[in-house]
Amino acid sequence: MTYVDGWRGRIGLITIASGSSTEHEFHKYAPVGVGILTTRVILRDMSPEALVDMGPYIDEAASLLAGAEVDVIAFACTAGSLVKGVGYDQEIIERLESRTGLPVTTTSTGVVEALKILNVRKIVVTTPYMSEVNQAEKAFLEGSGFHVLRLRGVESTEPKFVPQIQPEVMYRLTKETFTEDADGIFISCTGLHVDGIIELLEKDLKRPVIASNQATLWSALRRINVHEKIEGLGKLFEYS
Fold this sequence. Notes:
The chain has helices at 21-29, 48-53, 55-67, 88-100, 107-117, 131-143, 167-177, 198-205, 212-223; strands at 9-16, 34-41, 72-75, 104-106, 122-127, 147-153, 184-187, 209-211. By secondary structure, it is α/β, with parallel strands linked by helices. The protein is globular and about 45 Å long.
């Protein structure tokens, strides 16, 4: 069946119940003919334990989206797809693909793919997370073959507060964290509204910038063979 609201492809988006950042950016930047269908999962706080506890909700959300006949499922949560270490994103993908019969990606999967295609190995990372989650992210990235030169977080513990962090705060934090040794920059967390600072940071720091929602959208589009340069989302979309 061909759908009017997704005749080039339909992305099934799993996002966090307390946020709207991912959904907003997917609808804002989706290419013509790409439909976005969203369902939400509960995240009680930003602790490692709560991130792991999302598992059953993710499974159910994937089933709901499969019932809506989407073409790909994207689990849009950075920390939630890497908190248990290298391979955790692939574990989620395999579980959801087995459950739904559809291609699946996650935010951390998209980030790794994006850093590799941009030939980035040495990175600086900024996040809204608490220390425990930052350490899990550092371990995941380094286990995936990257050298994390510096990592700084805002130390937020409540998911609902993350979308309230102003883009200017993340811009300043990223600029202060940056070192000339870095090949690239990663701003982590799908809850952040940072799409508007990607190209500004690329211009000011002369390095490619990866952000969680940008990488998730890019990864999902590649899985439905929609290859299109998107204005406003930086160098990554030169590799569509």
